[in-house]
Amino acid sequence: MIALIDTHTHLYTEEFDEDRELAIIRARESGVSRLFMPNIDDTTVEAMLSLCENHDECYPLIGLHPTSVDENWKQRLNVIRKWLDSARRFYGIGEVGLDLYWDKTFRKEQMQALETQIQWALEKDLPLIIHCRNAFTDLMTVFEPYKDTKLHGIFHCFSGTEEEAHKLLEYDGFMLGINGVVTFKRNLLPETLKTVPLNRIVLETDSPYLAPVPYRGKRNESAYLTKIAEKLAEIYDVPTADIAYATTKNALKVFKKTAKNI
């Protein structure tokens, strides 16, 4: 069976309350061997940890999502830091970043929160899972001082231009996270990816969001990762097994603290 890694899934959210265990079984039966779970904010940590404690294939991350940055962001970030410093084991800092799609009110605060969490990633030598929506220029402004550091991670849900892809790839320790968007009609991501080396790509679902074709519009889940792998096999003109091998290898480079537990 082809072994795949879902580097970004939120199976702990309420969308899976009715069939969470079945979703994990379906993922396993589809060949998805590991599920990395970025946190959302201070309200989701316990649900995420509870799931991960009961399933060895689930790996928790910790961070404050940019859309959760509000007038109380410092207090919320302090809660996240306490979790990070606790006896719990986390495998990355995420999901963090910038999101100016819905609201730009807390743009400055989002940048400050991101800067703080970058420092955490460096301090703990953990991968950083970056969310960026309608904020590419600001993201590059924040990231510029870290180009030659040990900072590493994933630029989650990449769907940008060829120029943006190559600017991100200048950060040697980072991969581009590719999800169901690559299967959508009338998007340019397949053409962009033809200019991106396969050794810089990881797979993700971002479930319950962004389900790939033919499930678009429905709740996403990790079992659907196979559809993304199949689309990448088409783009790179290689067998799906080669996509699985390469992206799994890439994911373990990012999440190096789990690489020995294969």
From TrEMBL:
<dbReference type="InterPro" id="IPR001130">
    <property type="entry name" value="TatD-like"/>
</dbReference>
<comment type="similarity">
    <text>Belongs to the metallo-dependent hydrolases superfamily. TatD-type hydrolase family.</text>
</comment>
<keyword id="KW-0378">Hydrolase</keyword>
<dbReference type="InterPro" id="IPR015991">
    <property type="entry name" value="TatD/YcfH-like"/>
</dbReference>
<dbReference type="GO" id="GO:0016787">
    <property type="term" value="F:hydrolase activity"/>
</dbReference>
<dbReference type="Pfam" id="PF01026">
    <property type="entry name" value="TatD_DNase"/>
</dbReference>
<keyword id="KW-0479">Metal-binding</keyword>
<dbReference type="InterPro" id="IPR018228">
    <property type="entry name" value="DNase_TatD-rel_CS"/>
</dbReference>
<protein>
    <submittedName>
        <fullName>TatD family hydrolase</fullName>
    </submittedName>
</protein>
<dbReference type="InterPro" id="IPR032466">
    <property type="entry name" value="Metal_Hydrolase"/>
</dbReference>
